[in-house]
Design a protein that fits this description.
19 helices, about 500 residues, globular, single chain, mainly alpha
Length: about 500
């Protein structure tokens, strides 16, 4: 396959930057979650996550517009038209200002009503919950303006900037833990203030970096009705898909709060902290690949695009598996080391969330090619409706008396079906070889199931000490790597990789 426009060296370099950043952020993140849980307590920690979730439900607009910005910026960069790039940048800023106003109206009416009259929060903590809610709203508005700036960094593939700023953000969150221990007052409210200050500082860092490095980031008021219509048309259908993911994530979180209590939300929040830390690895790799996909499509390099889709899907699944499988078999041991008090349902939530994350990691590489075409109505409508089914099916399951974990089982089944649904639409949109894609996904699935049973057979029950855990991890990594090399990775890619490694070792 032709890969003339695919800069593999840049992808590798950017992935390394983001990988180092991911390790630091993951370690700090896991520590801070444990520390904040100890400082706030299970109830206040659950309140912070579910109250922040009300605001985070509106972040689907954030993700949608970020994807739209990246798509238009990358395509104009591929064409070398910096004047048009600046116009699209300014248009995004102008449009986002309107979204900010709409968000404020909804958050201060519907969101505030839901917080005070529908959510299950102890009466004595309602004031603190309302204060944290207001801080979350301000933080969202501040960070919203960084979307075009972040998109421009990604389009230019300057991932080192993300790495450095993310490390600074991790350091600030670590500092919050130590500050929170010694400051007086309501810890939940103080935590909300400190998180707001951190968010504001990081947003300003992204803006300053762009102003200093990219001339096209200089803002001037620009408004073009036809381009606004195009942007909103593209964003509207993508908005639907992103909203369905919000329903799956934060909507289910609110549903659990209605049926159960904040302690269940805390258990789910801990599980998703682990998932986010693990999933960041594949997200970072895909962030490095995505601009190349947009540029390959813009220059009509279809074979290179197909190669990127297949290769990045396999690598994402492999990288996630390297971290998921050691955790799956030793979840109780890991949570026991990490947390002083492991909430009920935290272990099984973590295991199910990680399985769901492994499936979702293969979805990422099929999203950017669809967005690159701009013809996403049928694609997004089908995926959105299927994803949205998580909420009614989960509601029925909980209404019938099923455990909170049933919501994750529903999500796993639907996510797996969506893998094939996305690829089916790409067959007509860009000519993706659908049957080859299905074979690849089935190979990954079969290998994952086989490895799980081999792991259970080899190690039996939960391990008892650190040395057994480390031995477990090493053997799983070896088995997983051998399995992917023999049955999943493209033989041509394996051969090229071995030759490059041999060349480096020889030198």
């Amino acid at each position: 396959m032709s890969e003339s426009l695919v800069d593999n060296k840049r992808i590798v370099k950017n992935t390394i930057y983001l990988y180092i950043q991911m390790i630091i952020v993951m370690v700090v993140g896991l520590y801070t979650v444990r520390a904040i849980l100890d400082i706030l307590g299970v109830v206040d920690y659950g309140i912070y996550n579910v109250v922040g979730g009300v605001v985070a439900m509106f972040s689907f607009v954030n993700g949608t517009l970020a994807s739209a910005s990246q798509r238009y910026f990358s395509i104009e960069l591929a064409k070398g038209d910096y004047k048009r790039l600046n116009e699209w940048f300014c248009l995004n800023i102008s449009t986002f200002s309107i979204f900010i106003l709409v968000f404020l109206v909804i958050a201060e009416t519907v969101g505030l009503w839901f917080l005070n009259y529908k959510m299950v929060i102890p009466e004595e903590r309602m004031f603190a919950a309302n204060v944290v809610y207001q801080f979350s709203i301000i933080s969202f508005c501040v960070s919203f303006f960084s979307i075009p700036y972040n998109a421009l960094i990604i389009a230019h593939e300057k991932m080192s900037a993300f790495a450095y700023i993310s490390i600074v953000e991790a350091a600030l969150k670590l500092a919050i833990v130590f500050i929170l221990k010694y400051l007086l007052g309501d810890k939940l409210i103080v935590y909300g203030i400190l998180m707001l200050l951190t968010s504001t500082g990081i947003t300003m860092s992204y803006i300053i970096y762009n102003i200093r490095h990219f001339s096209e980031s200089k803002f001037h008021f620009y408004w073009n009705s036809s381009e606004i219509k195009e942007l909103l048309g593209f964003s509207g259908w993508h908005l639907l898909a992103t909203f369905s993911n919000v329903i799956r994530s934060y909507g289910i979180n609110l549903l659990l709060n209605v049926f159960f209590n904040p302690a269940v939300n805390a258990a789910r929040a801990i599980a998703f902290q682990i998932y986010n830390a693990v999933n960041q690895l594949s997200n970072n790799f895909f962030t490095a690949v995505k601009p190349q996909m947009y540029k390959s499509y813009a220059n009509d390099e279809r074979l290179a695009l197909y190669k990127l889709i297949f290769r990045s899907t396999i690598i994402c699944a492999y990288l996630i598996s390297l971290l998921v499988f050691p955790i799956l078999h030793n979840t109780e041991y890991i949570l026991g080391l990490w947390l002083h008090e492991v909430p009920e349902y935290a272990v099984v939530f973590t295991q199910l969330v990680l399985i769901n994350g492994l499936i979702d990691s293969a979805n990422g590489p099929t999203i950017a090619p669809a967005l690159a075409t701009g013809r996403i109505r049928n694609y997004q409508l089908s995926v959105s409706i299927t994803t949205f089914l998580n909420l009614p099916i989960s509601y029925i399951a909980l209404k019938l008396g099923c455990a909170p974990t049933s919501t994750m089982i529903v999500s796993i089944i639907i996510s797996y079906f969506i893998l094939f649904l996305r690829a089916y639409f790409l067959k007509s949109m860009i000519g993706l070889p659908f049957m080859n894609y299905c074979k690849m996904i089935l190979k990954i699935t079969a290998l994952s199931v086989a490895l799980f049973y081999i792991e259970c057979w080899l190690f039996g029950s939960e391990i008892a000490n650190l040395w057994e855990f480390l031995l477990n991890c090493v053997l799983i990594v070896i088995l997983l790597s051998i399995g992917y090399l023999l049955f999943v990775f493209d033989k041509e890619d394996v051969s090229i990789a071995f030759h490059k490694v041999k060349s480096v070792l020889t030198r």
